[in-house]
Each structure stands twice: as C-alpha cells, then as structure tokens.
Amino acid sequence: MAQCAALILAGGSGSRLGSDIPKQYLSLNGVSILRRTVDTFLAHPDIDAVQVVIGAKDRELYNVAIGDADVRPSVTGGASRQESGRIGLEALTDDAPDYVLIHDAARPFIDAATIDRVLSALVTSSAVLPSVPVTDTLKRSTGDPPIVSENVDRRDLWRAQTPQGFRYIDILDAHRTCASQGLTDDASIAEHAGLSVALVRGSEDNFKITTVDDLERAQRMTEYSSDEFRIGTGFDVHALVDGDHVILCGVRIDHSHGLEGHSDADVAMHAVTDALLGAIAEGDIGTHFPPSDDQWCGAASSVFLEHAGRLITERGGRIGNIDVTIICEAPKISPHREAMTLSLAGILGIAPDRVSVKATTTEKLGFTGRGQGIAAQASAIVRLG
Ligand code: MG
Fold it and tell me: Looking at beta carbons, which pairs linking 138-143 to residues 24 or more positions away fall under 8 Å?
C-alpha cells in the first residue's frame, strides 16, 4: 500500500479577519477551525500521517486547538507560505511517504470525496489540483474608483483549492530547487519545476476562511451540523405502604396504599428526572437534592423535574422526547395517562406530543406483581447544540 501523508499549513496570521488570533485557531461552534480540518484527514482511511506546520508564536494556541488529535509533532514554519510548505515537507523526510496532500488549515470543510478524487488522480499524475470552475462573469478594472476596462473570458478559468496532491519526492525536490519566491500555492511550485498539474473537481464548500463574511458562513454551516443528540435513562422504585393515594407524574390517584419516600415519592417523575439528568451527564436526583437534606422532605417532585429541565435549557439544549413506563398491578394508569402527559409537558414547558406515559404489569410476578411497590423506567432524548 502506498503511504500518504497530509501536510496542514497553519502558519498564517489571518490579518484580514481583524482578530488578534490567527483564523485557524478561532472556534466554530466549540471546535477550532484547525481541529476540524485535521480531523477530516485523520478520519480518512488512506491518510497515514498528519503533519501540521504552525507559526512561531502560536505554540500555545496550537496546543489548545489540536487537543488530543493523533498528529505528528508540529513544526514551526517560515516567513512565507512557500517556506512553511518546504519546512513541512522536510519534516516528513524520515517517513518519506509516497504521496503528500498539502492543505490550508483555514479550509475546514474539506470532505472525504474531494480527498478521494485527488488521491485517485495521483495514480496517474505527479501533481493534482482540486478546483472549481469560475461561474461569475469576470471584469478587469482600471482607475480609482475602479471602472470596468474589459471583460475577461472565464472559459478555462479555475479557482484553485487544496489539498493539492503530489508524489512526495517530486514536490520536495521542486520546493528545494524553486528559484521563485512568494508563490501562494504548491501547484505553482510544481509548475515551476516542470511538473504537469492535473485538475480534479473540488467543492464549493471547501472555501478558505479569509474574510469576516467567510467566517460567518462557516459559523452558519457548523451551527446546523453541530447538533448533538444525547440519550438518558432513569429507573426508580418506591415501596407501597399504608395510605390512601399515590402521586404519579404529578397526578394524585386515590389508592388502597400510598408510596413511601422522602419527597412525595412520585416514582414516575423521579425516573423521568433521572433520564433527563442522565442525558446531560449531570448525575441523578440525589446529586442535586440529597435525601439527607430535610428541606426536600415531602417536596413536590415537580421541583426536581423543573430543575433538570432548567439545567438542559442553560446548556442550550432542548428535550426531543420523553418516554416513561410505570410498572405496577394497581392502580390502573390508563384513565390518568392524559393528565400525566400534560403534567410532565407543563412542568418542562414542552409540547405534549413529546411526552409518552405508558404502564405495564409484571403478570403478578416480583415485588410489583405482589403489590409491594411501584417501579418506573424512563428514556429521554436531549438535543444539544
Ligand atoms: Mg425516587
């Protein structure tokens, strides 16, 4: 199998964005632009190693941005993109991969399909450039303020993107011997060395974040895709003891016995609360309302459920749905299902069609079957992002 390395150039200073932090270290919905870029290459099955080239002053920013990503130790680039590219290639000499893909860190929307197209073309070409055709009408201008002086024929014009793919030895040699300075991509260096550069289709989404408009577009693109779904489960049991009613999902039901518990012993609402807390990894009811604390003695369990709902909201989350099953022989749940659904939905401020309340018996088996207690289990989906 041919070995292929990805070389990510992250030495730019991003001066056009007006930020003190170079753009590749800015965050898009909680994940740095650099990390998003690197992760796509790490996830690609044909990429064997990822080498990042960073700016001399950016070590700390880099460490935070890259986190635990499985990349080679970074190297410090030079004064220009061209120099940084050469330094990155030199850093790969020990491995001497067959191929190298050289990519701008500020193109976080590189996709596996574009990488595939570049790699496929490398089988028959020594240099490959992903690009998109120019579709806008092009004008040349003169003067200030500018006035159109001529139309430019857009046929055969392409916008160059990255990753640009090369046979490693060829592009290393081209960089080492390149007499020109200030070339802004590696395909130009390959051309200078007399290599023929094949074009393959790039992607309109694979744009380079350069301006504030680009950054806003990138943020919009990640807002949608950053939604994260969390699932939680809850289970609870309370014993049936002397009494004349039970409270389930906030609904009082007359019964031959009552439920024993520190609070109002609403076993079903406790299971729902634990499912929601579980979905956001916030422990369980006992974590937030310790039974040792007397202030919760006899408390309405709606206090617990409201608290769980608030924690989700504070994290920018929304409840997708809740499903709770009450396990008992008696009382009969079905006459109260609708009231229970409305009760849970009301406490959480969500639509009733996101709440399911069900009941089952255990065919007279076990403690619920013998009427010694009531159990409840619940699942919940929470959408974060
Ligand atoms: Mg409980």
Answer: none
pLDDT at residue 182, rounded to an integer: 81
| Cβ-contact 265, 247 below 8 angstroms | yes
- What pLDDT, on a 0 to 100 scale, did the predictor assign at position 297? 84
User: How far are the Cα atoms of 22, 32, 106, 385 from residue 219, in angstroms, in the given order?
Assistant: 16, 11, 13, 12
Å from CA of 348 to ligand 1 middle: 18
Which residue from 4, 74, 68, 66 is spatially nearest to 36, judged by alpha carbons?
A: 66
Q: What's the gap in Å between 376 CA and the centre of ligand 1?
A: 9
236 Cα to the center of ligand 1, angstroms: 5
Which part of the chain is CATH 3.90.550.10?
4-135+154-225
Report how many helices (DSSP H) and strands (DSSP E) the chain contains, helices first: 12, 19
- CATH code of 228-384, in short, is 3.30.1330.50
Architecture, CATH, for domain 4-135+154-225: Alpha-Beta Complex (3.90)
10 pairs with which residues across the strands? 54
Catalogue the long-range contacts made by 351-356 (C-beta closer than 8 Å, 24 or more residues apart): 354/319, 354/320, 354/321, 354/322, 355/321, 355/322, 356/321, 356/322, 356/323, 356/324
- Please name which of 292, 282, 288, 290 lies closest in space to residue 317, comparing C-alpha atoms: 282
Decide if 84 contacts 77 (C-beta within 8 A).
yes
The pLDDT value recorded for residue 281 is 94
Structure tokens at 342: 């409305």
Model confidence pLDDT, tens digit, residues 35-66: 999 999 999 999 999 999 999 999 999 999 99
In angstroms, the CA 86 to CA 72 distance is 16
Q: CA–CA separation, 56 vs 86, rounded Å?
A: 15
Beta bridge partners of 176: none
For 255, residues 6+ apart whose C-beta sits below 8 A from its C-beta are 243, 244, 245, 246, 330, 331
CA distances for 283 relative to 22, 232, 234, angstroms: 38, 11, 11
Q: How far, in Å, from the CA of 314 to the mean position of ligand 1?
A: 24
CATH 3.30.1330.50 placement within the chain: 228-384
Q: How far is the CA of 285 from the centre of ligand 1 (A)?
A: 8
Task: Report residues of the chain scoring pLDDT below 50.
Answer: none
